[in-house]
Amino acid sequence: MNIVIPDDYQNAVERLACFSALEDHEVTIWREPAGSFEELVQRLHPAEVIVAIRERVDFSHALIARLPNLRLIALVGRNATTIDYAACTKYGVMVSTGKSNSPTSPAELTVALMMAARRNIVLEAERMRRGEWPCTLSHRMRGSTLGIFGLGNIGSLVAQAGAGLGMNVLAWGQDTSRKRAESAGYGFAASKQDLFERSDVLSLHVRLRPDTAGIVTAEDLARMKPTALLINTSRAELIAPDALLNGLRAGRPGYAAVDVYEKEPILDGGHPFLSMPNVVCTPHLGWAEWDNFELYFSEAFEQIVAFAAGAPMRLANPDVKPRG
After folding, report:
1. In angstroms, what CA-CA distances link 252 with 192, 221, 244?
2. pLDDT in the model for residue 323
3. Which residues, in sequence order, are CB contacts of 41 under 8 Å at separation 6+?
4. What pLDDT is attached to residue 80?
5. For an engineered disulfide with 171, which of 32, 110, 151, 178 has Cβ 3.0 to 4.6 Å away?
6. Using DSSP, how many helices (H) and how many strands (E) does the chain show?
7. Among this protein's residues, is 284 annotated catalytic?
8. Distance in angstroms (rounded) separating the CA atoms of residues 97 and 120
Protein backbone atom coordinates (compact mmCIF):
# COMPACT_ATOMS: atom_id res chain seq x y z
CA MET A 1 0.00 0.00 0.00
CA ASN A 2 0.98 3.61 -0.48
CA ILE A 3 1.35 5.18 2.97
CA VAL A 4 2.00 8.87 3.62
CA ILE A 5 3.12 10.28 6.96
CA PRO A 6 2.90 14.09 7.06
CA ASP A 7 4.51 16.49 9.53
CA ASP A 8 7.13 14.30 11.20
CA TYR A 9 8.64 17.43 12.80
CA GLN A 10 11.10 15.50 14.94
CA ASN A 11 12.34 13.35 12.03
CA ALA A 12 11.72 10.48 14.42
CA VAL A 13 9.38 8.01 12.74
CA GLU A 14 12.00 6.08 10.76
CA ARG A 15 14.14 5.77 13.91
CA LEU A 16 11.41 4.00 15.85
CA ALA A 17 11.75 0.25 16.34
CA CYS A 18 8.09 -0.20 15.46
CA PHE A 19 8.62 1.36 11.99
CA SER A 20 9.71 -2.07 10.77
CA ALA A 21 6.01 -3.05 10.76
CA LEU A 22 5.65 -1.06 7.52
CA GLU A 23 8.61 -2.59 5.69
CA ASP A 24 6.37 -4.29 3.11
CA HIS A 25 4.70 -1.02 2.09
CA GLU A 26 5.67 2.09 0.17
CA VAL A 27 6.07 4.84 2.76
CA THR A 28 6.56 8.56 2.13
CA ILE A 29 7.41 10.78 5.09
CA TRP A 30 7.16 14.56 5.03
CA ARG A 31 8.99 16.45 7.73
CA GLU A 32 8.25 20.12 7.01
CA PRO A 33 4.61 21.28 7.07
CA ALA A 34 2.98 21.97 3.72
CA GLY A 35 3.13 25.62 2.74
CA SER A 36 -0.44 25.75 1.45
CA PHE A 37 -3.63 23.73 1.20
CA GLU A 38 -2.87 22.87 -2.44
CA GLU A 39 0.59 21.64 -1.51
CA LEU A 40 -0.93 19.50 1.24
CA VAL A 41 -3.38 17.97 -1.26
CA GLN A 42 -0.52 17.24 -3.63
CA ARG A 43 1.48 15.50 -0.93
CA LEU A 44 -1.42 13.40 0.30
CA HIS A 45 -3.09 12.66 -3.04
CA PRO A 46 -1.29 9.33 -3.71
CA ALA A 47 -2.00 7.96 -0.25
CA GLU A 48 -4.15 4.92 0.38
CA VAL A 49 -3.28 5.26 4.05
CA ILE A 50 -2.33 8.39 5.98
CA VAL A 51 -0.75 8.22 9.40
CA ALA A 52 -2.20 11.21 11.26
CA ILE A 53 0.24 12.36 13.93
CA ARG A 54 -2.16 13.63 16.56
CA GLU A 55 -3.65 16.96 15.41
CA ARG A 56 -0.94 18.28 13.13
CA VAL A 57 -3.09 18.16 9.97
CA ASP A 58 -6.64 19.44 9.67
CA PHE A 59 -8.49 16.63 7.92
CA SER A 60 -11.38 18.83 6.89
CA HIS A 61 -14.23 17.98 4.53
CA ALA A 62 -12.47 20.01 1.84
CA LEU A 63 -9.28 17.97 2.22
CA ILE A 64 -10.95 14.55 2.40
CA ALA A 65 -12.93 15.35 -0.76
CA ARG A 66 -9.66 15.93 -2.65
CA LEU A 67 -8.09 12.57 -1.74
CA PRO A 68 -9.74 9.95 -4.00
CA ASN A 69 -7.21 7.21 -3.19
CA LEU A 70 -7.51 7.45 0.56
CA ARG A 71 -8.97 4.43 2.31
CA LEU A 72 -7.66 4.67 5.88
CA ILE A 73 -6.51 7.33 8.33
CA ALA A 74 -4.47 5.64 11.04
CA LEU A 75 -4.50 7.98 14.00
CA VAL A 76 -1.53 8.25 16.35
CA GLY A 77 -3.40 8.50 19.64
CA ARG A 78 -6.95 7.89 20.78
CA ASN A 79 -8.78 10.91 19.38
CA ALA A 80 -8.31 14.08 17.35
CA THR A 81 -10.40 17.22 17.08
CA THR A 82 -8.98 17.90 13.61
CA ILE A 83 -10.63 15.02 11.76
CA ASP A 84 -14.01 15.49 10.11
CA TYR A 85 -15.36 12.02 10.87
CA ALA A 86 -18.60 12.67 9.00
CA ALA A 87 -16.67 13.56 5.85
CA CYS A 88 -14.55 10.43 6.21
CA THR A 89 -17.68 8.31 6.49
CA LYS A 90 -19.24 10.08 3.50
CA TYR A 91 -16.24 9.34 1.27
CA GLY A 92 -15.66 5.80 2.53
CA VAL A 93 -12.52 6.53 4.51
CA MET A 94 -11.98 4.48 7.66
CA VAL A 95 -10.52 6.18 10.71
CA SER A 96 -8.72 3.81 13.04
CA THR A 97 -7.49 4.95 16.44
CA GLY A 98 -4.99 4.01 19.11
CA LYS A 99 -5.97 2.61 22.46
CA SER A 100 -3.41 3.95 24.92
CA ASN A 101 -3.38 7.16 26.87
CA SER A 102 -0.13 7.64 28.75
CA PRO A 103 -0.28 10.56 31.22
CA THR A 104 3.35 10.39 32.33
CA SER A 105 5.05 12.48 29.66
CA PRO A 106 2.71 15.49 29.70
CA ALA A 107 2.67 15.44 33.50
CA GLU A 108 6.46 15.47 33.62
CA LEU A 109 6.64 18.39 31.20
CA THR A 110 4.07 20.31 33.22
CA VAL A 111 6.15 19.94 36.37
CA ALA A 112 9.31 20.90 34.47
CA LEU A 113 7.62 24.03 33.12
CA MET A 114 6.35 24.92 36.58
CA MET A 115 9.83 24.75 38.06
CA ALA A 116 11.47 26.51 35.11
CA ALA A 117 8.98 29.37 35.12
CA ARG A 118 8.61 29.71 38.87
CA ARG A 119 12.37 29.91 39.40
CA ASN A 120 13.11 31.98 36.24
CA ILE A 121 15.44 29.28 34.93
CA VAL A 122 15.06 30.00 31.21
CA LEU A 123 15.31 33.76 31.67
CA GLU A 124 18.44 33.53 33.81
CA ALA A 125 20.13 30.91 31.63
CA GLU A 126 19.69 33.15 28.59
CA ARG A 127 20.97 36.20 30.48
CA MET A 128 24.02 34.32 31.66
CA ARG A 129 24.82 33.31 28.07
CA ARG A 130 24.82 37.02 27.25
CA GLY A 131 27.40 37.63 29.97
CA GLU A 132 24.98 39.11 32.52
CA TRP A 133 25.04 38.19 36.19
CA PRO A 134 22.57 40.19 38.36
CA CYS A 135 19.68 37.81 38.85
CA THR A 136 15.96 38.24 39.30
CA LEU A 137 14.18 37.10 42.41
CA SER A 138 11.91 34.14 41.84
CA HIS A 139 9.07 32.43 43.72
CA ARG A 140 9.37 29.37 45.90
CA MET A 141 6.87 26.58 45.45
CA ARG A 142 6.77 25.13 48.96
CA GLY A 143 3.81 26.57 50.84
CA SER A 144 2.23 28.06 47.70
CA THR A 145 -1.06 26.93 46.18
CA LEU A 146 -1.06 24.68 43.13
CA GLY A 147 -4.38 24.86 41.32
CA ILE A 148 -5.33 21.91 39.13
CA PHE A 149 -8.18 22.55 36.69
CA GLY A 150 -9.22 18.98 35.87
CA LEU A 151 -7.95 16.33 38.27
CA GLY A 152 -7.81 13.49 35.76
CA ASN A 153 -4.91 11.13 35.03
CA ILE A 154 -2.46 13.88 34.06
CA GLY A 155 -3.66 16.41 36.60
CA SER A 156 -3.38 13.81 39.37
CA LEU A 157 0.29 13.17 38.58
CA VAL A 158 1.01 16.91 38.55
CA ALA A 159 -0.81 17.26 41.87
CA GLN A 160 1.28 14.44 43.38
CA ALA A 161 4.47 16.18 42.30
CA GLY A 162 3.29 19.50 43.69
CA ALA A 163 2.33 17.93 46.99
CA GLY A 164 5.76 16.30 47.11
CA LEU A 165 7.30 19.76 46.81
CA GLY A 166 5.23 20.96 49.75
CA MET A 167 2.61 22.82 47.71
CA ASN A 168 -1.01 23.05 48.79
CA VAL A 169 -3.08 21.39 46.07
CA LEU A 170 -6.42 22.96 45.17
CA ALA A 171 -8.48 21.20 42.51
CA TRP A 172 -11.53 22.15 40.48
CA GLY A 173 -13.51 20.34 37.81
CA GLN A 174 -16.30 17.85 37.39
CA ASP A 175 -17.56 15.51 40.08
CA THR A 176 -14.82 12.99 39.30
CA SER A 177 -12.26 15.69 40.14
CA ARG A 178 -14.03 16.36 43.41
CA LYS A 179 -13.97 12.69 44.37
CA ARG A 180 -10.29 12.34 43.48
CA ALA A 181 -9.44 15.45 45.48
CA GLU A 182 -11.31 14.16 48.52
CA SER A 183 -9.63 10.76 48.25
CA ALA A 184 -6.15 12.31 48.00
CA GLY A 185 -6.73 14.86 50.73
CA TYR A 186 -6.50 17.87 48.42
CA GLY A 187 -8.59 20.99 48.69
CA PHE A 188 -11.45 21.55 46.27
CA ALA A 189 -12.31 25.08 45.19
CA ALA A 190 -15.74 26.50 45.90
CA SER A 191 -16.01 27.59 42.26
CA LYS A 192 -13.96 28.15 39.15
CA GLN A 193 -13.58 31.78 40.20
CA ASP A 194 -12.26 30.65 43.58
CA LEU A 195 -9.67 28.44 41.87
CA PHE A 196 -8.32 31.31 39.77
CA GLU A 197 -8.26 33.74 42.68
CA ARG A 198 -6.40 31.48 45.11
CA SER A 199 -3.88 29.70 42.89
CA ASP A 200 -0.23 30.73 42.84
CA VAL A 201 0.34 28.20 40.08
CA LEU A 202 -2.62 27.10 37.96
CA SER A 203 -2.30 24.17 35.55
CA LEU A 204 -4.96 23.29 32.97
CA HIS A 205 -5.78 19.61 32.46
CA VAL A 206 -9.19 19.70 30.80
CA ARG A 207 -9.99 17.67 27.70
CA LEU A 208 -10.86 19.87 24.72
CA ARG A 209 -14.46 19.34 23.59
CA PRO A 210 -17.03 21.68 22.07
CA ASP A 211 -18.31 22.51 25.57
CA THR A 212 -14.82 23.23 26.99
CA ALA A 213 -13.49 25.42 24.17
CA GLY A 214 -12.90 28.86 25.69
CA ILE A 215 -13.70 27.60 29.19
CA VAL A 216 -10.95 29.87 30.56
CA THR A 217 -12.15 33.43 29.99
CA ALA A 218 -10.55 36.84 30.21
CA GLU A 219 -12.56 37.38 33.39
CA ASP A 220 -11.07 34.22 34.92
CA LEU A 221 -7.53 35.37 34.16
CA ALA A 222 -8.21 38.83 35.55
CA ARG A 223 -8.93 37.19 38.91
CA MET A 224 -5.43 35.73 39.14
CA LYS A 225 -2.71 37.20 41.32
CA PRO A 226 -0.12 39.41 39.59
CA THR A 227 2.52 36.94 40.85
CA ALA A 228 0.64 33.85 39.62
CA LEU A 229 1.74 31.42 36.92
CA LEU A 230 -0.64 29.81 34.41
CA ILE A 231 0.52 26.57 32.77
CA ASN A 232 -1.13 25.13 29.67
CA THR A 233 0.11 21.78 28.36
CA SER A 234 -3.39 20.65 27.33
CA ARG A 235 -4.88 22.60 24.43
CA ALA A 236 -4.65 26.27 23.48
CA GLU A 237 -8.34 26.42 22.61
CA LEU A 238 -9.30 25.91 26.25
CA ILE A 239 -8.47 29.59 26.69
CA ALA A 240 -10.63 32.21 24.96
CA PRO A 241 -8.87 33.76 21.93
CA ASP A 242 -6.23 36.35 22.92
CA ALA A 243 -7.34 36.20 26.57
CA LEU A 244 -3.98 34.96 27.86
CA LEU A 245 -1.96 37.39 25.76
CA ASN A 246 -4.07 40.33 26.91
CA GLY A 247 -4.05 39.09 30.49
CA LEU A 248 -0.25 38.86 30.56
CA ARG A 249 0.01 42.36 29.13
CA ALA A 250 -2.34 43.58 31.85
CA GLY A 251 -0.35 41.77 34.55
CA ARG A 252 -2.82 39.05 35.52
CA PRO A 253 -1.51 36.44 35.50
CA GLY A 254 2.05 37.61 35.91
CA TYR A 255 3.58 34.58 34.22
CA ALA A 256 2.73 31.77 31.82
CA ALA A 257 4.29 28.53 30.64
CA VAL A 258 2.82 27.27 27.38
CA ASP A 259 3.31 24.11 25.32
CA VAL A 260 0.28 24.35 23.00
CA TYR A 261 -0.87 26.91 20.45
CA GLU A 262 -3.90 27.50 18.28
CA LYS A 263 -1.85 27.17 15.08
CA GLU A 264 1.14 24.85 15.03
CA PRO A 265 3.96 24.72 14.20
CA ILE A 266 5.19 28.21 15.04
CA LEU A 267 8.13 29.05 12.79
CA ASP A 268 10.52 32.00 12.61
CA GLY A 269 9.60 33.19 16.09
CA GLY A 270 6.15 34.15 14.89
CA HIS A 271 4.24 34.34 18.16
CA PRO A 272 3.98 37.28 20.60
CA PHE A 273 4.63 35.01 23.59
CA LEU A 274 8.18 34.48 22.33
CA SER A 275 9.08 38.11 22.93
CA MET A 276 7.72 38.16 26.48
CA PRO A 277 10.27 37.54 29.27
CA ASN A 278 7.52 36.35 31.64
CA VAL A 279 6.50 33.47 29.34
CA VAL A 280 8.24 30.12 28.89
CA CYS A 281 7.34 28.47 25.58
CA THR A 282 7.98 24.92 24.40
CA PRO A 283 6.98 23.42 21.00
CA HIS A 284 4.27 20.92 22.02
CA LEU A 285 6.68 18.63 23.86
CA GLY A 286 4.12 17.17 26.25
CA TRP A 287 3.91 13.77 24.57
CA ALA A 288 7.18 13.89 22.63
CA GLU A 289 9.56 11.34 24.13
CA TRP A 290 10.83 8.01 22.84
CA ASP A 291 8.76 5.66 25.00
CA ASN A 292 5.57 7.52 24.14
CA PHE A 293 6.35 7.56 20.43
CA GLU A 294 7.07 3.82 20.40
CA LEU A 295 3.77 3.20 22.20
CA TYR A 296 1.55 5.44 20.08
CA PHE A 297 3.12 4.75 16.69
CA SER A 298 3.21 0.99 17.26
CA GLU A 299 -0.56 1.13 17.72
CA ALA A 300 -0.98 3.22 14.56
CA PHE A 301 1.12 0.78 12.55
CA GLU A 302 -0.80 -2.11 14.11
CA GLN A 303 -3.94 -0.53 12.65
CA ILE A 304 -2.38 -0.46 9.17
CA VAL A 305 -1.24 -4.10 9.32
CA ALA A 306 -4.74 -5.16 10.42
CA PHE A 307 -6.32 -3.10 7.63
CA ALA A 308 -4.02 -4.64 5.02
CA ALA A 309 -5.07 -8.07 6.28
CA GLY A 310 -8.73 -7.17 5.78
CA ALA A 311 -9.52 -6.85 9.49
CA PRO A 312 -9.62 -3.14 10.35
CA MET A 313 -9.60 -2.43 14.07
CA ARG A 314 -10.70 0.28 16.52
CA LEU A 315 -12.76 2.22 13.98
CA ALA A 316 -13.89 5.65 15.09
CA ASN A 317 -16.51 5.62 12.31
CA PRO A 318 -17.79 2.00 12.37
CA ASP A 319 -20.72 2.84 10.05
CA VAL A 320 -18.41 3.68 7.14
CA LYS A 321 -18.85 1.84 3.86
CA PRO A 322 -15.21 1.45 2.75
CA ARG A 323 -14.01 2.31 -0.69
CA GLY A 324 -13.28 -0.62 -2.95
Report:
1. 16, 6, 9
2. 87
3. 63, 66, 67
4. 87
5. 151
6. 11, 12
7. yes
8. 39
- 264 a catalytic residue: yes
Catalytic residue among 198, 235, 252, 271: 235
**What is the C-alpha R_g of the chain?**
21
Selecting among 71, 271, 284, 299, the annotated active-site residue is 284
Q: What's the pLDDT score for residue 79?
A: 83
Q: Name the H helices within the chain.
A: 37-44, 61-64, 85-90, 104-118, 121-129, 153-164, 175-184, 192-198, 218-222, 243-250, 290-308
Alpha carbons within 13 angstroms on the beta-carbon side of residue 85 total 14
Give the closest residue to 99 by CA, choosing from 279, 313, 261, 243.
313
Q: Give 15-58 as a 3 state SS string.
A: HCHHHHHHCCCEEEECCCCCCCHHHHHHHHCCCCEEEEECCCCC
Closest among 254, 274, 136, 243 to 201, alpha carbons compared: 254
**pTM, entire model:** 0.92
Written as one letter, the residue type at 296 is: Y
What are the mean pLDDT values of the chain's consecutive 10-residue runs (324 residues total)? 96 97 97 95 98 95 98 93 96 96 95 98 94 93 98 98 98 98 98 98 96 97 98 98 98 98 90 96 94 96 97 96 86
Angstrom distance (rounded) from CA 80 to CA 97: 9
Active site residue 54: no
Q: How many CB atoms lie within 10 A of CB 219?
A: 12
Question: CA-to-CA distance for 60 and 87, rounded, in angstroms?
Answer: 8
Q: Which of 124, 197, 264, 294 is catalytic?
A: 264
* Domains located in the chain, CATH noted: 2-101+289-308 (3.40.50.720), 104-281 (3.40.50.720)
